[in-house]
Amino acid sequence: MMGIRYQQDYIVPFYESDRFKKMRISSLLAVALQISGEQSVSLGRSDVWVSEHYHYFWAVIEYELDITRLPVFSEKITIETQATSYNNFFCYRNFTFKDENGNLLVEIKSTWVLMDQESRKIERVADDIVAPYASDKISKIIRPHKFLKAEVFEGASQVRY
Prior knowledge:
With about 160 residues, the chain is α+β, with helices and mostly antiparallel strands. The chain has three helices and seven strands. Strand 3 and strand 4 form a beta hairpin. It is globular and about 50 Å long.
């Protein structure tokens, strides 16, 4: 099933752009967080609800970005998010950023955990918390991207600026 989709149109403001008018990566991530929060509110599972009912908070532990093209200042884009799956400790959420013609600009895969406000320890994901998202419960852990070892890059030229 892969979860309920949530989308919103967005116009890239000046302050989220760099000197080349391209949206900053930090801004991409901040807007993605905002959109996921808005979906959570619409489903009755806001950060406040999670805090009041469980004394937990959400933490993102990994992002994987695939950038085709960065959005630019004043460009109208559509941001879509979907909580795709979860297991006992991790929740997985994807984001897509598309231009007005529906062309994929950026795809973000993220991994989230619930943490206890007092102990700061990772907690089990209660089905009650994630049920409204209609994401799939899986037993496996989706492993992060593996980076190449430093030896692979020996002899590569350096770029300095």
